[in-house]
Amino acid sequence: MADGTLQVGFETQGSAVVISPQGEIGYSEATVFRTWLRKAHDAKSPRLVVDLSKVDYMNTPGVATLVESLQIAKKAKTRLILCGMNEKVFAIFKIARLDTVFEITPTAADAIAKA
User: Fold this and answer.
1) Count of domains in the chain?
2) 59 and 93 in contact (C-beta within 8 Å)?
3) 2 assigned to some structural domain
4) Residue 1: which residues within 8 A CB-CB, separation 6 or more?
């Protein structure tokens, strides 16, 4: 978004909380993203799905926010699933070898359907 504001969808689907950020997740947006992820963790759902299908670009602070969220999820025994990454965003995860750390699915429907 031009003004640096990140739009974030937040909904519950079955036993999953789905967070859907839209736009770019850079330095200024990472703080907003972190706030929404904490809200999702506070819901204490067994699964947290982060739908990245509307994220055009993510840099280090965005990735670090997801790593922090994964640590919180592991402590709370919540399953964190990332989905819908475009090639640019997925490349960042692959370079950092985070594609082996995170559970990643092609779509939100796949993530929600996972038992």
Assistant:
1) 1
2) no
3) no
4) 7, 22, 23, 24
Residue 59 sits in a domain of what CATH number?
A: 3.30.750.24
Are the C-beta atoms of residues 53 and 38 closer than 8 Å to each other?
Answer: no
Is 39 a member of any domain?
Answer: yes
pLDDT recorded at residue 9:
96
Query: How far apart (Å, rounded) are the C-alpha atoms in residues 35 and 115?
Result: 27
Beta strand residue intervals within the chain, DSSP E: 7-13, 16-25, 47-51, 54-58, 79-83, 103-105
Q: Are 6 and 29 in contact (CB under 8 A)?
A: yes
List pLDDT tens digits, range 42-82.
999 999 999 999 999 999 999 999 999 999 999 999 999 99
pTM confidence score: 0.94
Q: What share of the chain is helix, strand, coil (3-state, %, to 5)?
A: 45, 30, 25
